[in-house]
């Protein structure tokens, strides 16, 4: 059995995110994952706090807050405060961030895997009350501590894609937030589990969350919205991941170039049905829940119903969660 | 303008304790709860969300927030989000922050461009808020003449000292301001029941930290240069502020930067500040860290 969750992003209006948080219990949403669209929409920390305050039973996690765009002390302080609001329901999901976003912000990392590993290590040390001195290409701390008396256990999930990052997640994380086509996800689960076992961990110790673009076609969602999201996903997909797939590379390259030049809308004309199906979960209610079950069979422990939210998305969400819970019963 | 009272929360307390103290202050007729950001242990916008959720008509101030730590765009986003979620009841206090503590988290601030950068960041933040139609008051935390002058481009100033002479000195430097411009003070505060300010090291250290941040022109104006120079050397050697540093500064000097006294003395102090034209007093740490202190403060202002 898999956990059934909803993903929201800071780019959504407060009215929509509040509706999801307010209805989480009645819908049976087990986790609400919050993605930070850098510099767009709601503040990720305030949004996460509000979701924790409104959805009193659900687990709430960030998926992800890039470690590259906030001071590490801010991330440590934010997570500590959110953990206190959630009283054990908060999960800190982090990662390096999307390629496009980092390029736009002029951030280049020579050693992203090492930097992310260091960031997780530093955060965990700060949360147990350690004083930390560290200097690398991403952050500097000089004898800095949160001055807490009691250590805080905050689960850390990593939003990662490439093989080295997946290995890192298997070695050090409490969970992984994955996105990509089924074949990729299958490989990713294997890589994470192997790394976890190498580190003497049980594979089940590392949760695997799959957040793919989900497009219910039974409640009036426009397909162009799904194509826009798939364009972003394709543009951000590392070469190493694309190499694992049987995919039309010419078309993929056109999408990547267009997104870089014109933004996400530029990729829309090049996303065909094959790519849409490869990089998203779409269709009627039963088909979508079938696909969630397929994900569970390849080792995914949690599936996320996420944006684009369009048409009667509230109705679609209710139907899908009802069907998920009906099949469980 | 009626004198307003604020209380600063969120230094090292746990969130449930912050909420408890916030509720006490709310019931004690405090006008605004100020949620301190860095170097507080908890992130101010998140703490403010929890307080705003709990106290649905309380006015909240966020700050001091440093645009050197949080980019102006991020600051505007959290204010915009707080207003969208909880209504138009937030104020924002900007300031450079404690430069030496910012350096500890990798934020290097160049003194030679500090004022210029603050001016640019304040302009950006105010323009963005205006474009979004958000009416949040933006105040500037200030001590020296540069920041005091800069504060006139905002909705008000919070001065980081308690001595009425120093406050009057700052007000002269402000010159003519509009009626809407808020002049406030934000001193470390401790209310005593036994006339024993000298024994409250937490208060003395908080006030000493403020004193040590004083710039050259104002320390010269008030004859504090020598004491501050000696104390700064001691801080460098010791790696922090302790009772010896307080001794070097001298307790009289320290008390120019912090408010400590009985409830009667504090009432008298409030009257003095009201007479000289102060609009707002924000009682700073360590007062907001103890329930009994908040009770005493409620006695003062009611």
What does this structure look like?
The complex is a heterodimer of chains A (329) and B (302). Chain A is of the alpha/beta class and 329 residues long. Chain A has one domain: Luciferase-like domain (TIM Barrel, Alpha-Beta Barrel). In chain A, 47% of the residues lie in helices and 17% in strands. Chain A has 14 helices and 13 strands. In chain A, strand 9 (175-178), helix 8 (182-198) and strand 10 (207-212) form a beta-alpha-beta unit. The longest helix of chain A has 17 residues, at 182-198. With 302 residues, chain B is α/β, with parallel strands linked by helices. Chain B has a single domain, classed as TIM Barrel, CATH 3.20.20.30. Helices cover 49% and strands 15% of the residues of chain B. Chain B contains 14 helices and 10 strands. In chain B, the strands form 2 sheets. Chain B has an 8-stranded parallel beta barrel, surrounded by 5 helices. A two-stranded parallel ribbon of chain B has the order 8-9. In chain B, strand 6, helix 7 and strand 7 form a beta-alpha-beta unit. In chain B, helix 1 packs across helix 2 and helix 10 (225-238) runs antiparallel to helix 11. Chain B is globular and about 50 Å long. Chain B starts with a strand and ends with a helix. The model of chain B has no long low-confidence stretch (mean pLDDT 93). The chains are: A alpha/beta (329), B alpha/beta (302). Chain A binds chain B through residues 14, 18, 39, 41-43, 45-50, 53, 70-74, 77-78, 80-82, 84-85, 135, 139-144, 146-148, and chain B through 12, 14-16, 38, 40-43, 45-47, 49-50, 53, 69-70, 73-74, 77-78, 80-82, 84-85, 103-107.
């Amino acid at each position: 059995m898999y956990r059934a969750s909803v993903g929201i992003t800071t780019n959504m209006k407060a009215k929509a995110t509040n509706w999801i948080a307010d209805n989480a219990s009645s819908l049976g949403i087990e986790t609400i994952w919050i993605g930070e669209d850098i510099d767009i929409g709601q503040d990720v920390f305030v949004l996460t706090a509000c979701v924790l305050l409104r959805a009193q039973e659900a687990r709430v996690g960030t998926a992800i807050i890039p470690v590259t765009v906030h001071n590490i002390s801010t991330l440590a302080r934010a997570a500590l405060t959110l953990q206190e609001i959630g009283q054990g329901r908060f999960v800190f999901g982090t990662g390096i961030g999307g390629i496009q976003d980092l390029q736009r912000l002029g951030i280049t990392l020579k050693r992203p895997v090492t930097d992310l590993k260091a960031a997780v290590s530093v955060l965990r040390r700060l949360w147990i009350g350690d004083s930390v001195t560290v200097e690398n290409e991403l952050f500097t701390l000089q004898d800095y501590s949160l001055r807490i008396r009691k250590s805080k256990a905050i689960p850390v999930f990593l939003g990662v894609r490439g093989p080295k990052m997946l290995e890192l997640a298997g070695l050090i994380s409490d969970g992984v937030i994955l996105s990509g086509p089924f074949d990729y996800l299958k490989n990713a689960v294997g890589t994470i589990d192997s790394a976890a076992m190498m580190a003497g961990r049980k594979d089940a110790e590392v949760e695997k969350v799959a957040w793919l673009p989900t497009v219910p076609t039974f409640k009036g969602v426009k397909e162009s919205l799904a194509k826009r999201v798939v364009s972003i996903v394709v543009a951000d997909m590392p070469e190493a991941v694309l190499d694992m797939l049987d995919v039309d590379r010419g078309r993929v390259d056109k999408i990547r170039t267009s997104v870089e030049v014109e933004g996400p809308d530029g990729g829309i004309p090049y996303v065909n049905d094959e790519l849409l199906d490869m990089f998203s979960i779409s269709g009627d209610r039963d088909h979508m829940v079938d696909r969630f079950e397929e994900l569970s069979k390849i080792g995914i422990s949690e599936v996320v119903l996420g944006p684009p939210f369009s048409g009667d998305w509230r109705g679609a969400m209710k139907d899908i969660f009802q069907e998920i819970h009906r099949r469980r019963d | 303008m009626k004198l307003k009272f604020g209380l600063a929360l969120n230094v090292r307390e746990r969130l449930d304790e912050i909420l408890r103290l916030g509720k006490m202050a709310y019931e004690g007729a405090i006008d605004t709860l100020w949620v301190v950001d860095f170097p507080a242990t908890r992130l101010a916008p998140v703490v403010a969300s929890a307080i705003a959720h709990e106290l649905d008509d309380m006015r909240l101030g966020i700050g001091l927030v440093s645009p050197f730590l949080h980019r102006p765009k991020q600051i505007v986003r959290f204010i915009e989000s707080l207003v969208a979620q909880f209504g138009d009841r937030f104020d924002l206090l900007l300031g450079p922050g404690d430069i030496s503590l910012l350096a500890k988290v990798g934020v290097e601030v160049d003194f030679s461009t500090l004022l210029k950068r603050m001016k640019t960041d304040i302009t950006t933040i105010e323009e963005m808020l205006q474009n979004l139609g958000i009416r949040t008051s933006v105040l500037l935390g200030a001590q020296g003449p540069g920041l005091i002058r800069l504060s006139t481009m905002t909705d008000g100033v919070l001065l980081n000292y308690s001595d009425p002479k120093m406050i009057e000195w700052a007000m002269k430097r402000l010159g003519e301001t509009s009626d809407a411009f808020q002049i406030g003070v934000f001193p470390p505060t401790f209310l005593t029941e036994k006339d024993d300010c000298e024994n409250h090291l937490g208060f003395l250290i908080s006030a000493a930290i403020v004193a040590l941040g004083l710039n050259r022109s104002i320390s010269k104006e008030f004859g504090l240069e020598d004491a501050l120079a000696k104390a700064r050397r001691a801080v460098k050697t010791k790696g922090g502020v302790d009772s010896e540093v307080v001794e070097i500064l001298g307790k009289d000097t320290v008390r120019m930067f912090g408010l400590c006294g009985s409830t009667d003395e504090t009432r008298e102090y409030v009257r003095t500040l009201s007479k000289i034209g102060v609009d707002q007093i924000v009682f700073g740490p360590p007062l907001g860290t103890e329930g009994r202190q908040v009770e005493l403060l409620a006695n003062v202002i009611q």
